[in-house]
Amino acid sequence: MQLRPTTTSRENVIRSRRPRRQRRGRMRGRRPGGRVASARGRLRHFRQATLLAVAITSLLLLLIAPWEAGLAIDAGEPSPASEAVSPAPADPDQDLSPEREGQSPEPTEPIGQAAAEEAARTLETLWYGLYGNLPKFLVVLGVVVVAWVLVRLVRPLLRRTLKRWEKADAVVALIGIVIWIFAAGISLSVLAGDIRALVGSLGLIGLALSWALQTPIESFSGWLLNSFKGYYRVGDRVAVGDVFGDVYQIDYLATTVWEIGSPSRGGFVQAEQPTGRLITFPNNEVLAGTVVNLTRDFPYVWDELTVPLANESDLGLGMRVLTDVARELLEPHMSAPAHRYAEILERAGLEVGVAEEPRVFVSMNESWTDLTIRYLVNARERRKWKSELTMRVMAELKKEKHAGHLISVFPRRQVQFIGPDGLAVKPS
């Protein structure tokens, strides 16, 4: 029989707690600001929800029981609720003392009964408020119906008048918003009666709603700005923040694009070709970020292909060979867009030295020389022309007449022997 050493319960507790503390410490090291950021996000959402609740409560008080909010009450005018729940006049001959001769004091009402009576009085107050404001509600309903009919009639008329104007949708939306704001002002003035209290209440409600609905308001403002300025339209290829693709749909609050791949962005397509995914982003990105439009005024972009050659190569010959290959392939498709691009720059007062044929530029690298072909192509066909140009350049460099003159760059390693005196020596 073997005896095993035993440990006390305190040691077991310490050992069982130690790994948890170590794990917690490692988790804190991995995400030092995760809890703080999460708490800030929850606090922001709570503040927005609170402001929205205050706005909705103020609006309900304004509509259902305006006397509770201090509206529509003259100095001597009693509210319907106060008339409904006013107590009966007391009999002066009646003895109000709690105790009478030879009688015990009456028992007080139970708490539940008092709460039920208070709830009944509250419901009765709301009912009298609703019943008293019924004519006003009918007037408001008529105003809303008139505004709805007016908007339904104005929109087709404006679209027919403006036709294909780029900013027609924004103008139609703004006119509809103005009509609804005007109708809302008339309705609230009818319900409230006192214009001063109405303005104060609307100011508080508007402040609360502006804080609670900050993101939707910014998105709508971004849509208006894009509609009038024309940063992008449906069909344009744009890059907005981290999103890159073709614009598919533009709504009041968000924009949807067909995603396009790119080597500089993560994804399973590493070239400028469609990925098949739809991406939606809020329109406030127009206000806070940078919008890059590749096809709005000029659907062509400059592209480059870099061909590395060894330093021992004939660089002059390399430039002539690459220029001939690029001209043969791209010059027929490049001259007209280049001339149009030069006209756009000239109208804007910018430089007008636009090449109408491909050009080759030379730059030094670590241990070789780069020959870069610069050319103008359609923004949606960059990969097509770059692939075709690469195939022709590689086929030209493999010809026997260029052997020994145009040397391609391959990974290589140089070994050097150093003698005792620190100088390079030849291997024996």
UniProtKB/TrEMBL annotation:
Keywords tagged on the record: Membrane, Transmembrane, Transmembrane helix
Listed GO MF terms: mechanosensitive monoatomic ion channel activity
GO annotation, cellular component aspect: membrane
Residue runs in coiled coils: none
Primary location class: membrane
Gene3D superfamilies, per database record: 1.10.287.1260, 2.30.30.60
Membrane topology: Multi-pass membrane protein
Ranges annotated as biased composition (Low complexity): 78-88
Organism in which the protein naturally occurs: Desulfonatronum thiosulfatophilum
Region (Disordered): 1-40, 78-112
Mechanosensitive ion channel MscS domain span: 216-257
Record's compositionally biased regions (Polar residues): 1-11
Pfam families in the cross-refs: MS_channel_2nd
Biased segments, Basic residues type: 15-33
Family the entry assigns: Belongs to the MscS (TC 1.A.23) family.
Compartments in which it is found: Membrane
Record field: transmembrane: 137-158, 170-189
Protein name: Small-conductance mechanosensitive channel
